[in-house]
UniProtKB/TrEMBL annotation:
<dbReference type="InterPro" id="IPR000639">
    <property type="entry name" value="Epox_hydrolase-like"/>
</dbReference>
<dbReference type="InterPro" id="IPR029058">
    <property type="entry name" value="AB_hydrolase_fold"/>
</dbReference>
<dbReference type="InterPro" id="IPR050266">
    <property type="entry name" value="AB_hydrolase_sf"/>
</dbReference>
<feature type="domain" description="AB hydrolase-1">
    <location>
        <begin position="22"/>
        <end position="251"/>
    </location>
</feature>
<dbReference type="GO" id="GO:0016020">
    <property type="term" value="C:membrane"/>
</dbReference>
<dbReference type="Pfam" id="PF12697">
    <property type="entry name" value="Abhydrolase_6"/>
</dbReference>
<keyword id="KW-0378">Hydrolase</keyword>
<dbReference type="InterPro" id="IPR000073">
    <property type="entry name" value="AB_hydrolase_1"/>
</dbReference>
<protein>
    <submittedName>
        <fullName>Pimeloyl-ACP methyl ester carboxylesterase</fullName>
    </submittedName>
</protein>
<dbReference type="GO" id="GO:0016787">
    <property type="term" value="F:hydrolase activity"/>
</dbReference>
Length: 268
C-alpha cells in the first residue's frame, strides 16, 4: 500500500477505481480500513481514495502537530499531490470536522461534502455538554487503551448480531498509539468553524443516525445555515452509520453523488 510524505509526515493511503474522485476521511481512532463496506458500492463508479490521518492507522505518529486544521492541511496537500480535481469529500465524526475545516479554508477544493454524524464545532456551551466532554477526556486518559476500545465497541455496536463487527472494531481501536489518540481527542475539544459556514459553496449531504450522540435537531440547525444542503436520517443507526447500516448509507451516498454530477437545470 502506498505512502506519501506530506507536511513532514508519512501518510498512508489507498487509491482504487476510475472516475470522479471520492476521498473518504475516517473518524477518531480509526483508519481507512473502516470504509470497507462502502468500497464495493463506490468502486464501479468512482475513483475512491482513503487517507489515514497523522497519528492513525498506518500513517506516522509524530509527537506533535495534532489539530483539525493540521489534519485538513494534510488533506489539502494530499489532494494537490494526487491532482484530484474537485473531489467529493466524505467524512465521519472527526472526519466530518476535517471536511468542514477544509471546505471553509479552501472552498474551491471540494466538489461536494458528505458529513456523517458530525458537525461544524465541538464547543461545550451547556453544563451537560461540559460534563460529557470532561467525562470523555477523563476516562480516555485514565483507562488503558484496550479498556477504552472495549467500551467504544460496545457503545457503537451494541446489538447481539453485531458481535463479529464489534470484535473487529475493538481490535482495530486497540492498535492505536495511545499518545497520538489522546492528542487527536484533545484536538477536537473547542474546535469550530460555525461562523464561517457561508464560505462553503458546494452541495452538502448531512447524514445522521437516529441514535447518534448528537441529536438530529442539532444537525438540522446547522444544515439551515448552509446553502445547498440536505439532511438524511438513517433509522436504527448509532454513531457508526456506514458500518451499522451500510446498505441504507450507501444508497444515500450514491444518490447524492449522482445528483452532484447532474448539470443544473436553468429556466429559459
Amino acid at each position: 500500500m502506498p505512502d506519501l510524505m506530506l507536511n513532514g509526515c508519512r501518510l498512508h493511503y489507498t487509491d482504487q477505481g476510475q472516475g470522479p474522485a471520492v476521498l473518504l476521511i475516517h473518524g477518531l481512532g480509526s483508519s481507512g480500513r473502516d470504509w470497507e463496506h462502502q468500497l464495493p458500492a463506490l468502486l464501479p463508479h468512482y475513483r475512491v481514495l482513503t487517507l489515514d490521518m497523522r497519528g492513525h492507522g498506518a500513517s506516522d505518529k509524530p509527537p506533535r502537530g495534532y489539530s483539525i486544521k493540521a489534519f485538513a492541511e494534510d488533506c489539502r496537500a494530499f489532494i494537490e499531490q494526487m491532482q484530484l480535481e474537485r473531489p467529493h469529500i466524505v467524512g465521519i465524526s472527526m472526519g466530518g470536522m476535517i471536511a468542514f475545516q477544509l471546505a471553509t479554508d479552501h472552498p474551491q477544493i471540494p466538489g461536494s461534502l458528505t458529513i456523517i454524524n458530525s458537525g461544524p464545532e465541538l464547543i461545550p456551551r451547556r453544563p451537560a455538554e461540559y460534563a460529557m466532554v470532561a467525562k470523555r477526556l477523563f476516562f480516555a486518559h485514565v483507562l488503558p487503551l484496550p479498556t477504552v476500545a472495549h467500551g467504544l465497541a460496545r457503545l457503537l455496536l451494541p446489538k447481539p448480531e453485531q458481535a463479529e463487527l464489534r470484535a473487529i472494531f475493538e481490535q482495530r481501536w486497540k492498535e492505536n498509539d495511545r499518545r497520538a489518540y489522546l492528542a487527536s481527542l484533545r484536538a477536537l475539544i473547542g474546535w469550530g468553524v460555525s461562523k464561517r459556514l457561508d464560505r462553503i459553496n458546494c452541495p452538502v449531504l448531512v447524514v445522521s443516525g437516529d441514535r447518534d450522540y448528537t441529536p438530529v435537531e442539532k444537525k438540522r440547525e446547522y444544515v439551515s445555515l448552509l446553502g445547498d444542503a440536505r439532511l438524511a436520517v438513517v433509522e436504527d443507526s448509532g454513531h457508526a452509520t456506514p458500518v451499522d447500516q451500510p446498505e441504507a448509507f450507501n444508497r444515500l451516498l450514491l444518490d447524492f453523488l449522482a445528483s452532484c454530477r447532474q448539470p443544473a437545470v436553468t429556466e429559459s
